[in-house]
Design brief:
The complex is a heterodimer of chains A (about 200) and B (about 350). With about 200 residues, chain A is α/β, with parallel strands linked by helices. In chain A, about 50% of the residues lie in helices and about 10% in strands. Chain A is elongated and about 75 Å long. Chain A starts with 13 loop residues before the first strand and ends with a helix. The chains are: A alpha/beta (about 200), B alpha/beta (about 350). At the A-B interface, α1 of A face loops of B.
Chain lengths: ~200, ~350
């Protein structure tokens, strides 16, 4: 489901413009200040203060990976590419660097506000998806554990696989953990302590 | 003092069409200020108005503004709707011109080429909602003309009303100029809101206000004392067009004409007057400044009413109700800077008046 975009809370946010001194930068800085952000400039490299900023605007024309204190595409904050030359190689680099939105140079009177909202929304969506994907991937990796847990429960009292499966679900609910986590506990107990822990499991 | 330097000033108002009443009020303020500047011996300049009339056609604004600027003017006053303002901004950019925009608008803009001398939402809509929610209740009905003013004002109202645990009972738009208000009025009759936010413009607004006024006579729950109609752009300028269907309307604005009479007939007139006077002040004693960009004009620490960062002005917010055909202030907030992107902290709404029960 699509989450509502965050429109508020731009006031007092900080932006760093990673671009050599240029009238384009002044125009962008004016727009950002009018919106209510604090702005600083950096060139040629982003300093450690970038980690405390809320937005990065970076030059896509003369930019390169070493300018950023993080791996390409792994920025901890929304990034907006400032694109002058619309050459495919530069656009490809800007995307790989992790652009969440872009502004075309020459920069004039408008565009910064929509770039801020779009970049933040894309960043939020990307981060939410990453968390979800990591969780799904972990659960996928646990499939084998679930099969082992069901087999163990079937061998220790459950009348068949379906009953063992139901028992595992009950355990997960009672322990308030995911199905996969419950399976991992069952497997760990049966392989380490064997039956001596079973009574506690059911408590 | 020697001869006054003549400076061309574009005057861009639709003198006919759906919102001509607003245009005329604003134009009157601009023309009065031009006359005052020209007659002021203390100023070393005089304005030569260059007038164009787009006749209410949004598509005519860009070409006419282009004509004005190509004719040697650098500054233009006018545009009434946000639609027309957005039409002229690309033209202003091309010529390095400046628009002095003296009407209330929906915010979310701070153009390098525009000065905003009337109110934006932190100066009209938000104080109005702060007043109405505790005073009349949390259930609102939203209306608006079908363009950026209506859309954005209602979006913002929805956001703030919802955040205050209120409820939106309906939201309806009409094309600019439409008088087809029957359906909306029927919905309001059934929805029975605590208040109605009217972001309709011009003739639509007059038809709507007249119809709701009639509704309130039939149904006391919808009479203005119980369920007020709120506007952020309704001023004295439009009361004659309502032909009496204005009693109880509540409006927010920076100025309302006192019953005993005031310098201006409405805030629409006052804001246009202030814009032209401020331009004259910025140009006075600076020969050649009429060719300078707005940034250069505002940049030398000249002070004055225009915020050099946002190009907005600090204005008081007055909530006023029409009583006996005159706006009477219900609440007055001191001047606050325009905050077009609503990114600056707002003064906390006044605490509800609770009394210790003993």
């Amino acid at each position: 489901m699509r989450h509502p975009i965050r429109i508020q809370n731009l006031g007092g946010a900080s932006a760093i413009i990673l671009h050599r001194p240029h009238p384009n930068v002044q125009a962008l800085e004016r727009q950002l200040r009018a919106i209510g952000l604090t702005v600083s400039q950096a060139w040629p490299d982003l300093g450690p203060e970038a980690l405390g900023a809320d937005f990065i605007f970076f030059d896509a024309d003369m930019g390169h990976d070493e300018q950023f204190p993080w791996a390409p595409g792994e920025s901890p904050l929304p990034m907006v590419a400032l694109i002058g030359s619309e050459a495919p190689g530069r656009i490809e680099w800007a995307l790989r660097a992790g652009a969440h939105a872009q502004l075309l140079k020459p920069l004039g009177d408008s565009g910064a506000y929509s770039a801020l909202l779009i970049a933040r929304d894309a960043f939020d969506a990307q981060r939410a998806l990453s968390v979800e994907i990591a969780d799904l991937r972990r659960r996928l990796d646990e499939r084998q554990t679930v099969v082992r847990a069901v087999t163990l429960l079937a061998a220790h009292g459950a009348k068949d696989d379906a009953a063992a499966y139901g028992q595992l679900r009950q355990m997960a609910m009672a322990w308030r953990v995911s199905f996969e986590d419950a399976a991992a506990r069952v497997v760990a107990r049966h392989t380490a302590g064997q039956d001596e822990d079973d009574r506690r499991d059911r408590g | 003092m020697g001869a006054k330097r003549p400076i061309k000033l574009g005057v861009l108002y639709s003198r006919s069409g759906d919102y001509a009443v607003l245009s005329e009020a604003s134009r009157a303020g601009a023309m009065a200020a031009i006359a005052a500047v020209n007659a002021d011996p203390a100023l070393d300049l005089c304005f030569q108005p260059v007038e164009c009339d787009p006749k209410g056609n949004a598509d005519a604004y860009g070409p006419l503004c282009n004509d004005i600027l190509a004719g040697g003017a650098r500054h233009v006053i006018g545009c009434v709707t946000s639609w027309s303002r957005k039409e002229v901004i690309p033209v202003l950019e091309r010529h390095g011109g400046t628009l002095w925009y003296p009407l209330p608008y929906e915010g979310f803009e701070a153009s390098d080429h525009v000065v905003y001398t009337h109110a934006c939402p932190n100066q009209h809509l938000l104080p109005l909602l702060d007043w109405v929610l505790p005073a009349h209740g949390p259930r609102g009905f939203l209306t608006g003309s079908n363009y950026i003013w209506g859309w954005e004002m209602n979006r913002l109202a929805r956001e703030r009303i919802t955040a205050a645990a209120g409820e939106i009972l309906g939201e309806r738009f009409l094309p600019l100029g439409s008088r087809e208000v029957g359906r909306i009025v029927e919905e309001i009759r059934h929805a029975r809101p605590d208040f109605i936010l009217n972001n309709l413009v011009g003739t639509s607004s007059y038809a709507f206000l007249t119809a709701v006024q009639a509704l309130g006579r039939d149904d006391p729950a919808l009479a203005p004392g119980r369920c007020p109609i709120l506007s952020c752009n309704l001023t004295e300028a439009e009361l004659p067009a309502l032909r009496g269907a204005c009693e109880g309307l509540v409006s927010a604005g920076p100025y309302f004409r006192p019953a005993e009479g005031g310098a201006f007939a409405s805030s629409i007139e006052a804001a246009a007057f202030a814009a032209v006077r401020e331009l004259a002040r910025l140009l006075h004693g600076r020969p050649g400044a009429e060719a300078a960009s707005l940034a250069a004009l505002l940049g030398d620490g000249t002070g004055g009413m225009i915020d050099p960062v946002t190009h907005h002005t600090a204005l008081p917010a007055i909530i006023a109700r029409v009583e006996g055909g005159v706006f009477c202030a219900l609440k007055t907030l001191p001047a606050m800077p325009g905050d077009p992107y609503l990114t600056h902290p707002r003064p906390a709404p006044a605490a509800p008046q609770l009394r210790v029960v003993s």
